[in-house]
User: Fold these one by one.
Assistant:
Number 1:
Amino acid sequence: MRILTLPNWFARTRSAEPRPRPEGGHEASGAQAVSAGEKPRAALRIGIPRVLNIWSTHQFWIGFFDALGIDSRHIEFSSDTSEGQAREFGKGRGTVDCCYPVKCVSGHYGELVQLKKHRKIDILFSPMIYSLPSYLGSHVLASLACPRVMAAPENIKAGFLKEKDAFAEQGIRYAAPLVSLGDRPLVPKQLYQGMKDVIPGLTLEETRRAVQAGFSALDTFNDGLRAKGRAILEWCARENKPCLLVVARPYHMDPGIGHEIEVDLQAYGYPVLWAQYLPTDPDLLGWMFGPDIEAGHIKSPFDIADVWPSSYSANTNEILWGAKYAARMPWIACVVRLSSYECGMDQPTYSPVQQIVERSGTLFFSFQDLDSTKPAGSVKIRVETIAHYLQKYSAEIIAKKKAASPAGCPLVEHAAEEAKSGI
């Protein structure tokens, strides 16, 4: 089975052609620059740090800028996080002492600021994302981002203004609009207010259209990954084989932060799912959570009030829901928890997540306090241990979870239909 790999994660859609000039040589209103010395929009290059919640919202920004007439090939994402990046581009820029995923942002800023020649950027775009879109929707109290993560752009910017304005020196305009992606009606006004001074001729109406295009791109991307997740589970059900679930924050997909632990596990032949992209088809969720709803424990399949009443944090909510999902899915034989050093948002969830998973008989392993340096030796030993336990116990785990599950699993029925039709 072909599985999406990380190098394709920030793939761009085909870019829009530059908008033609109207007769007379004047630019269309709101489409391109009109004042002397301004670049036309299609020529602008935008740098976006590949950090934090950009890992789960990048397709929104690609769709948003593309709809504004900015060639998506001119969007420059910084490279994956690495210690070398921090040494070369972030040295002396530190302004905050907290978790590594926030501290490392300085290296990403520095890398983008120093891009040269044909890759030189005109705008460094680093949104302060206050809330996040989530498939849990109104079934939780809120979908807020971590406060440190949300404020990171302003904190990191200060390191580039301490002695002199590093952005102005390179002719770069800096934009860090506050945006509530979890509250879609607010987004057009927020982005218009935050971007009107850096995007030539921007209007509120075209910002609304661009926001719609951004959400459409993000929804399409997320739906595609959930469909792939369903295909993986259907394959596991058909072959009666195990898979693994990673519960972590989206930026642990960054090889420099999550250290590619899930890639090492996948090398042993086990399919890997991420909690953010679990399939949410109604037939599957009805089968998994139906008995709990009938018993009155929860109100909907997306309800986590039974295990986490303070459901305000988007990523935390999805981690807890992922644990519940794994406990009810027979072919998820192992859950791997990733967490960064000094993550105050994760610490209260360590015990609840582990208890939910282990009480179902599912294997649980955690990699806590991940930092800048990958402890290669210990990670190798842990990965080998996980692979050993899966090889030894996965068949028994699957059998016991299947026996405890309701009848009529849609995955099994689909596998049976495929077998009858000879697919």
Note: The chain has 15 helices and ten strands.
Number 2:
Amino acid sequence: MSKCVVHWWTFLQRVMKDCDALYAPLEKHIADSFLPALFGSPLGKNSTDAEIVRDLTALPVKFCGLSIPNPTLSSLEQRSVSHACCSHLIQAIRGVKLFNMNDHGTSVGQSKATYLESKAEKLEAKMEDFLGKLSRDKSGKAYLARTIRRGCKTGSWLSSFPSFVNGTLLGCQEFRDALCWRYGIPCTLPKSCDGCGKPFDFEHSQKCLVGGMVHRRHNAVRDELIDLFRTALGKSRASPEPLISPGVKSIIDSGMKESGTQHNIQLDDLDAMRGDLWVRELWNDRMDGIIDVRITDTDNKSQRNTSDPMKVLAKHEKEKKNKYQELCLAQRRSFTPFVVSCDGLLGREAGLLLKRLSELLSAKWEKPYSVVHCFVKTRISFAIIRATNYCLRGPRIPSSYICQSVQWQGGSGLGLYRSQ
């Protein structure tokens, strides 16, 4: 919608004076029909939250919005900006000045820069004002505002065109679920989990281990990283599940035997420790890299009291480094934790890794870094959304409840089938 229809009414607002009232029926249809249909549910738990969510959707994506502006509020602004950009052209038409293409270009550029600078400040103030008005829970915590504020950094998937070739496709239900997560709107879910039988909600879906959905979510993001690194470096230079420290336990044990000493270190699991992705010469030409992926729900009860979700991700990164970094450095390998939230918020290390991946792809494809980095972030954003949706919509019911295995070993058992 922001790529086509909005431009139509924006053009009319630039050339027509005082036309805000004419767009009232359009805004009513957007708020009462279009947005509820887009979300697949009401916009909030109450009318106040619904109005605020509508106000938020009018903001740009990087300000937690959907770039669906309210046409009844933008007419004066659009007309004034258009008038400022065309000021030299208007004066030339009126005969006040001689038209000069360079002067016209300068006028347009300066007017746009001034408008965009003031617009960013206004949008930031509007966003904070809207978030401050959202309802709070019984303890007075602004969890809903905390969830929506993350949308400033997780909207890459909203700014791209659907494309099978580029891997930017979402199903109807996936898209609606992602919108509901973005604005903290409850979506239609079963009352109980089909795997463990406990009450089912978004938080439970992301932590229930029955059915292997959490493991599948993890592997989906890992596989996306592998695919991108193999595209950048070649299939032989990136592989999944590398050993962190192969043979370390036997080396330490033999060393202790030779010296006649004993140790209390638990080394039984060292040889089995694995990362998620090995990349040859990841950061430089002399050191391979190990990457380990973790996806966490920053809104679950154990983590949502931390005001800044980035601190939650930093805590998980530190846990990963404490566990693996020293062992990797002993093997002359770098270690990078790839920690992200369920809605696509990237940890600091994950952001740096995607920048490095973008550099490699930019050099290979000979394309601008900014374009490639946008593509990489968008691919990862879509992968995380699809992976999170596995946990929300995927079946957890045990296979033994669905069908019965064959009860005989030899072919003579078919006689039981034929006799019925």
Note: Strands lie at 238-240, 277-284, 287-296, 333-341.
Number 3:
Amino acid sequence: MRKIFLKVVACSLLVVLLLLAVPSINAQRPKILVYIGGHGGPGYEEWWRQLVTEFEQKYGIDVEYQIIGFEVYWDKLVAAFEAGTPPDVALADLGGWVPAFADKGWLEPLEKYLATWEGAKQIWPNLWEAVTYKGVRYGVPWYCDCRVLLYHKELFKKAGLDPSKPPRTWDELLECAKKLTDPKKGIYGYGVSGALSEITTLGYMIFLYGAGGRLLTPDYKKAAFNSPEGLEALKFYTELYTKYHVSPPGTPSYTEDDYRVMMAHGKIAMAIGGPWSFPLIEMENPAIKGKYATAAHPYKVHPATVYGGWAWVIAKASKHKDAAWKWIAFMDSYDVWKRWALKWKGPMPARIDVVFDVPFFLEDPLWKPIITMFPHAVARPPIPQWPQVSHVIQLMVQNVLTGKMTPEQALSWAAKEVNKILAGGS
């Protein structure tokens, strides 16, 4: 009886120990919170669920994820960082978010992970600038895009222009825009972005870099656009409206978003756009499908454009940084990206190998100019003061468009304001 009793006690203790061990095993399974800016919509929710399930099963890491609309994403992400409760990993816009967050101490440096990641050498080289702050990389580019010339092929034909030969230079741009403009019919040749919007800054940058200039000095400490090239770009860009009248009367309050709608209805022949324009212009007017095209934006000295997109970042406050990195490496892997690109026909991966292994990007007539132009694409300066600098550029352009300043006056004023901002002033 004593032996039986001891065996029962031993078995009971073993069961208790096993039951106690289960929670500890579960407690060792990390769980990360992921913020995804946009990238929702029909079909995408199920796609994200599939990817999350695949990741969880592969790595033994639980994932809680939130898909947040673009229009509120910045506010929600910043609020989470400021409250000290950020997601472990999140998407950050390539338009200045990463350096701004790094400057506040919110992000984890990623150099130790990138040093051994096979994908690092496959990222488009020009993308790294946007995620680098003081020589350290704080983000991994995920997808990208760049701005190109969007034009209405039917309007070209009606004006006697060959839609297979879009303008390549500034002179050709002006010549085409004049022929395409018919104020009596409310049709204009080219849409100049002039509103107080980041889009206006990007428009000026395309002309500036296309003229052989640059926005800031290489160390980002001073304005560089107060140059002959900067003045030439500002004059030509604004004179499309003020002198040649090939941009519509509402130009000082318009951006490419307005021109996209106008193009959909045959009222603007050319404007700056990108891959995001394709579904939006066709939603505005399904009949325009097949009637618009893309091309490298016209330039004076050499091809130029500005890129955008998103990068993955890890919060400095994350308690599961290694798990967060595994999520980034998974989402930016060749396999996941290729499946994504083949399924959705976009966006453009930050990985060069995927872009050149998916025929769609190289063969589709709308995408081909974007891929061709991307090596010429520049970043918005990766500085925490970028929003203030961009606002000054917007005011510079708008002051010329509205006649408040001459191009010379506006350029001089803007350079002084930007230098004050970069020096730590207001």
Note: Confidence is low (pLDDT under 50) at residues 1-26.
